[in-house]
Amino acid sequence: MNDPIFAIIEKEKQRQSEGLELIPSENYVSENVLKAMGSILTNKYSEGYPKLRYYGGNENIDQAETLAIERAKQLFHADHANVQPHSGANANEAVYFAWCKPGDTILAMSLPAGGHLTHGSPVTRSAKIYNFVGYGVTEDGDIDYDELEKLALEHQPQIILVGYSAFMKIPDFDRVAKVAAKVAEQSGHEVLLMADMAHVAGLIAGGVHPNPLEHGFHVMTSTTHKTLRGPRGGLIVSMGKVGNPLKKTERKLENIPTLIDRAVFPGTQGGPLEHVIAAKAVAFEEDLQPEFKEYAANIVKNAKALAEALKAEGFKLQGDGTDNHLILVDVKSSFGINGKLYEYALDKIGLTLNANALPTDKGAAFRPSGVRLGTPAMTTRGLGPDEMEQIAKWMKQVAEICAKAGDNKGLANYDGELDKLHKEVKDFALRFPVPGIN
Q1: Rg (the chain; Cα; Å)
Q2: Among this protein's residues, is 226 annotated catalytic?
Q3: CA distances from 159 to 99, 100, 176, 260, 352 (A)
Q4: Which single residue of 5, 22, 132, 298 could bond 373 by disulfide (Cβ 3.0 to 4.6 Å)?
Q5: Is residue 248 annotated as a catalytic residue, yes or no?
Q6: Which of helix, strand or coil describes residue 272?
Q7: Is the pLDDT of residue 303 over 80?
Q8: pLDDT at residue 261 above 80?
């Protein structure tokens, strides 16, 4: 294999093995997931759904996709699952398209408060189609439920969305469901309750986080990587009657599974990626095993241990800690540095995380005050609470170097110290092999 792409892949294997992945939205898949992802199923076109295809030769594909659907339903106690979305963003757009007309209102957590781009950021396509209204968080980092209710009654949205990419609390799904009921009574229209649980889907599957579908929500979207440890892709699970997606369906909440199927294909996507769907099926089966419950519990245990270790090292945390897998650190008030410099410096020693704005930041996308990190990937590799203390110590050392350096240019004066730390991280990381890497 002389194509340089294979040399690049080998370098990435080395980077993953010799460093520690702290980005909360990343994880490592099993060897079986990798095998399914790289299978000959990539060769097959299969527009449509099992037994409702637009091409012949799909008898084996139908079996694989049906397995993925049934396993996802079992995992999340759902009436229906659509495993075809190519990503979490596609899954969200399909739900909007299934329920809303252009100009309809969707109430969601604002991006500065910790929401996701697809929840109404003006740079996205969906924000140009629908009217998004954003709610925020309180000083202690929880959803501002009073504001959510006030905005819901004022704007009477078609969808109330609970979801996030930088939020450390457990949502009160029951309270949001009561708000939706008030809006429905006041407005006379049905309100779709939607949960984007891309970050915590694995915690839900593992039984350490409440399942929104069991608290009155109609739809849950997710990615299949992150805490689910599957291939990169999207998923929609829902409650309601399952009908024929090829037939026109009345717009009622009880029909939301069928409306979603129609919105995914042909509404927003073409042919599904059946090699990815097969890999999803493999991951879902792994997630259904008793060992996965232990893994999910350990993610949270490690996150809480890391949060406490960081606080002991002088870091200030948004919300003063975490109830899930994710930690948001205020490095600006802790050490007087910006998140982008800190991300760059940590990369140099083999600790990977991402700079992230805090709810208090104003226009600081490229010089945010915070960084975001989490424990799913480290927990997959077998790290525990004791190792979290060592990671916090390294993070403190790098933060102090950044404070002295001031900027990326000044960081060059500390290459010797960073190289020494890099060797320590490498020796440490190699003690915890990455699954699927020979």
Answers
A1: 22
A2: yes
A3: 8, 8, 11, 14, 35
A4: 22
A5: no
A6: coil
A7: yes
A8: yes
Q: What is the pLDDT of residues 206-223, one digit of tens each?
A: 999 999 999 999 999 999
Of these residues, 196, 274, 286, 387, which one is catalytic?
A: 196
**For this structure, is 54 an active site residue?**
no
Is-catalytic flag, 223? yes
Query: What is the Cα–Cα distance from 105 to 268, expressed in whole angstroms?
Result: 20
Catalytic pick among 18, 45, 70, 417? 45
Active site residue 47: yes
Evaluate whether 242 touches 262 at the Cβ level (below 8 Å): no
Predicted confidence at residue 365, as pLDDT, reads: 65
Q: Which of 232, 262, 280, 372 is catalytic?
A: 232
Half-sphere exposure of residue 230: CA atoms within 13 angstroms, side-chain side: 34
Query: Which two tokens mark 320?
Result: 């003063």
- pLDDT for the residue 433: 96
**pTM (two decimals):** 0.96
pLDDT higher than threshold 80 for residue 363: no
Predicted confidence band at 362 (pLDDT cuts at 50, 70, 90)?
confident
What does the block give as tokens for 268?
A: 């927003």
Question: Of how many residues is the chain composed?
Answer: 438
Contact (CB, 8 A) for 106 and 95: no
Token pair recorded at residue 277: 């769907």
182 catalytic residue (yes or no) = no
